[in-house]
Amino acid sequence: MLYPSVRQQSSGSTAFAVVTIIVAKLLLLHLMGRPFSCNCGVVTLWQGGLDPSQNSQQFADHYSLLHAGFGMILIQWLAWMRPHWRFSDLLVVVVASSAIWEIMENTPLIIARFGMLGSDLHYSGDSLLNSLGDTIFVLAGAVLAMKLSRLATLVLVTTIEITVYLLIGDSILFGMFRFFAGSTMGHA
Q1: What distances in angstroms separate CA 24 from CA 9, 69, 125, 161, one per listed residue?
Q2: Exposed/middle/buried for residue 111 (C-beta within 10 Å: 0-12, 13-18, 19+)
Q3: What is the pLDDT of residues 23-63, one digit of tens each?
Q4: CA trace torsion 127, 118, 44, 26 (10° rounding)
Q5: For the chain, which residues make up each domain, given as ranges?
Q6: CA within 13 Å, CB half, 12
Q7: 77, 65 in Cβ contact below 8 A?
Q8: pTM of this structure
Q9: Which of 88, 123, 131, 138 could link 10 by a cystine bridge, Cβ 3.0 to 4.6 Å?
Q10: If we measure between CA atoms, which residue out of 103, 96, 131, 132 comes closest to residue 21?
């Protein structure tokens, strides 16, 4: 680990906390009416095409890579802000942050907002399977980033952003720009 001040001790309750957060998120999304998987009748591990009926419905897609990048940036920032926290505590915060985003992202308001400003990918919210995959990718990105320097993480996340943008015309930064630029344009 490249962060010597981040404590390595891991509590036995970390896995329990992570699983509890993920299960609570999935339960809440289920109560919000999110489907378990794609209504198209097909379940796959990877959705590489831009099929509107399967976007954000399968376990992983191009956005999963962006979630991994989010996990990388978030844990690096947390380790910098809270260098004396245990690695396990950082992971719990990362998972909680992912859960909060997944719940917000699947509210009717955000789904409609992304649909209005969309990148022609016809976003209609995540399936539970996709939301689970997104959180696993966030966790994987966080674990990977703790083995990398800040510069290496920044280069990798930038590469992911550019690559995904070139592949599907969307990325975290571009999506945020559309979201906020559309907000200000709509109120002008």
Answers
A1: 26, 23, 18, 29
A2: middle
A3: 999 999 999 999 999 888 888 898 887 776 777 889 999 99
A4: -20
A5: 52-186
A6: 0
A7: no
A8: 0.86
A9: 88
A10: 96
